[in-house]
Amino acid sequence: MTALPHGIQIHGEFSPEFAEILSPDALAFVAMLHRKFNGRRQELLANRQLRQAELDAGKRPDFLPETQAVRDGDWRIAPLPADLALRRVEITGPVEKKMIINALNSGADSYMTDFEDSNTPNWLNQIQGQINLKQAVRRTLSFSNEAGKRYQLNDKIATLLVRPRGWHLDEKHVTIDGERVSGGIFDFALFLFHNAREQLARGTGPYFYLPKMESHLEARLWNDIFVAAQEGLNIPRGTIKATVLVETILAAFEMDEILYELREHSAGLNAGRWDYIFSCIKKFKTDRDFCLANRAQITMTVPFMRAYALNLVKTCHKRGAPAIGGMSALIPIKGNPEANDKAMAAVRADKTRDAGDGFDGGWVAHPGLVQIAMEEWVKVLGERPNQIDKQRPDVHTTAADLLNFQPEQPITAAGLRMNIDVGIQYLGSWLAGNGCVPIHNLMEDAATAEISRSQVWQWIRSPKGVLDDGSKVTAEMVRALIPQVLDDIRNEHGDATFAKVPYTQAATIFEQMSTSEQFTEFLTLPLYEKI
Ligand SMILES: CC(=O)SCCNC(=O)CCNC(=O)[C@H](O)C(C)(C)COP(=O)(O)OP(=O)(O)OC[C@H]1O[C@@H](n2cnc3c(N)ncnc32)[C@H](O)[C@@H]1OP(=O)(O)O
Ligand SMILES: O=CC(=O)O
Ligand SMILES: [Mg+2]
Fold this sequence. Notes:
Blueprint: E1 8-10, H1 16-21, H2 24-56, H3 68-72, E2 89-94, H4 97-104, E3 110-114, H5 123-137, E4 142-144, E5 150-152, E6 159-163, E7 170-176, E8 179-182, H6 183-201, E9 207-210, H7 216-233, E10 241-246, H8 255-261, E11 266-271, H9 273-283, H10 303-318, E12 323-327, H11 337-357, E13 361-364, H12 370-381, H13 399-402, H14 413-431, E14 437-439, E15 442-444, H15 446-461, H16 475-500, H17 503-515, H18 524-528
Helix pairs in contact: 2-6, 2-7, 5-6, 7-8, 9-15, 11-12, 14-15, 14-16, 14-17, 15-17, 16-17
Bound molecules: acetyl coenzyme *A, ligand LL5AMS7Z and magnesium ion.
Acetyl coenzyme *A binds at residues 91-94, 98-99, 102-103, 114, 117-118, 274, 327, 331-332, 365-367, 436-438, 443, 445, 447.
């Protein structure tokens, strides 16, 4: 085995194939970024706790007085490369071989490949994902399934964007000077190291999506990492482009500031609706006045979600930046044409609304949705690549609009049971290595599952956590439902699958997470220690 650079240790499989990704030079590059920036990451994570303590004490977020000049200033992000000007439909999905090929061939303009919400970050998935992407960039990625069906890339493929993990996650299989490396720095640095030059030679570039940030200072950290990484690889400053997911309530108060921090490297903002809802629950979970209705009622048209989406379009377009819409969780339904038609009509309505509001494109979860979404953007854009020139002077979003958390009702027994069911099924699947699954005909990933499990925690504690039949949601009620839900899951999937997927372990973790006094910051944090 080749000697590792000083201070670096690998605590996972290190096959010859893996060693190509984890080469001494690539690891030295990761280590350079880690040593320079991990201290700041830790400070920013500590800052999240301080802000949470302020919210717990009753403080409400507002637009920051100290950045008023940024909001009032007349500035725009740097010009976009041509292949980021056209993003009508973006498909997303985990970094798995077949999915990557299907997504790149799907007819979508762009494809966000995902080390984050839709991916279990086990060592195999992370490193095999990097191998797959390296081959995809070089157009050599191919695959044959068990039936002999061959998968390979078409001549025309979607523009690739990569989503590394968020600031809260570590990569425990690599330590540097005895410290776990940041998952986000690890994913970003390995991808950039192996692919940036090749992408530039092929007329595209290293493009990223940045998840779950809570402040413009977190965006500043990414920007500083980009500058150091470009210097380290001797590629021009501004080559990297990144779209930030506005998917926390605190980031919604700092959208201008986030674009400003990243203005040399920005490719706009995305309305990451699922984590956004989760963030609202997490940030206000102890507020006795806060309590959201059943998950299914929290749609993009409820007041606080509408305010967030419209303000995102307005902010982006003022700064010459693309505004990308989020994802409907509906996916094609097999074997039930009527239900499928309904689901497809709802996806279409979601895209019609976003395109009409001014979004320049939107996400889809499945190749079967690309055409529907594309039709809705083409109706609005015609031959134009985007509608960044569409300003929204009519939108005036206040802090009160962003914090207008309605509806509070209904909360029902079926809604509670569904949250428990989704929570257990998703945790089981995640532990088994699959971070994105269809559950009851909806796409479920880490963000959607976070809503389910945090609602259960909050309904138990909130005085408003009362079912429409008048009964208070309690820990005992949840504990009593869990074995019933496990039975439902066994009946739905059959004994063989039930024996293979760790649903029982998931149920124990779910019970612990939803009934313990302490709120688990992210469900992936304790789960990661178990894989
Ligand atoms: C909140 C957020 O962060 S949203 C972003 C993260 N979430 C995502 O990216 C969702 C990704 N989507 C998925 O993983 C999948 O669509 C699932 C798990 C929801 C459903 O997948 P499946 O059960 O395999 O769906 P289905 O059987 O209908 O798939 C049909 C074909 O489409 C492919 N496919 C489905 N979704 C995708 C996708 N997102 N990208 C590429 N290919 C896909 C399947 O691999 C399958 O290919 P095949 O016919 O060659 O075998
Ligand atoms: O990442 C997207 C989201 O909705 O969460
Ligand atoms: Mg998300």
